[in-house]
Design brief:
The chain has three helices and nine strands. The chain has about 210 residues and is an alpha/beta fold. Strand 8 and strand 9 form a beta hairpin.
Length: about 210
């Protein structure tokens, strides 16, 4: 039996049909993946609050620039850190911050100074302010620590006040607060961490305000 010759138009038609089937299959897979993504539960997002209702001393006329905090990679994220044991690091699966922690804490630090009636004397880099002093901070700890007595929110921040003209460190101090958490679940953990960071910011604002 002799082979039946296939004309070139038939080959092109078959190729076009195959291309259409492949395109339809890829569109179906893409749609299925999109639906699966839409159906997944988003991670609850939490914010930090700036402390208010407190005053800070200091009668100088110096202006302060607050630099964004530095932090190790494990804290330079929007994930909420947990320390289940000594030297161990994990993250909460059911909660996250509304921004990377250093950026979020930077904003709340400036707001804390503003809430303490230092509005005209505190700014951030890039605001065009001729600063007399610069506040440099480092986030040492910002985590839910699992202790024998239960989960505890621990926040520790080191701060240095630097003279802008001299470049010298004029004062330095470490601020720390620990607040027990009702549980290690996201809502309870973030409430405790927020309370701890508010305590630290009040301490730091009052300390720095007496220097400038």
């Amino acid at each position: 039996m002799s082979d039946v010759p296939v004309s070139r138009p038939d080959v092109l038609t078959q190729a076009a049909s195959l291309a259409r089937r492949l395109l339809a299959a890829s569109l179906f897979v893409g749609a299925a993946l999109s639906l699966a993504a839409c159906g997944s539960t988003p991670t609850p997002t939490y914010n930090l609050t700036a402390p208010g209702g407190f005053t800070a001393g200091g009668s100088g006329n110096g202006q302060l620039v607050v630099v964004a905090p530095t932090a190790l990679a494990v804290l330079n994220t929007d994930k909420i850190m947990v320390e289940p044991g000594a030297g161990q690091v994990a993250y909460l699966a059911d909660a996250q911050w509304s921004d990377n922690l250093p950026a979020l804490l930077h904003a709340r630090t400036i707001q804390a100074f503003e809430n303490a009636s230092k509005l005209r004397r505190v700014a951030r880099p890039g605001d065009g302010v001729n600063a007399d002093y610069t506040l440099v901070t480092d986030i040492r700890t910002f985590a839910l620590r699992i202790a024998d007595q239960g989960p505890v929110a621990v926040v520790e921040i080191s701060a240095k006040l630097i003279g802008t003209q001299s470049g010298r460190i004029l004062a330095a101090q470490v601020f720390r607060a620990a607040v027990p958490a009702a549980s290690s679940a996201g809502p309870a953990a973030t409430v405790a961490l927020d309370q701890a960071q508010e305590q630290v910011l009040v301490q730091m604002v009052r300390w720095a305000s007496t220097k400038f």
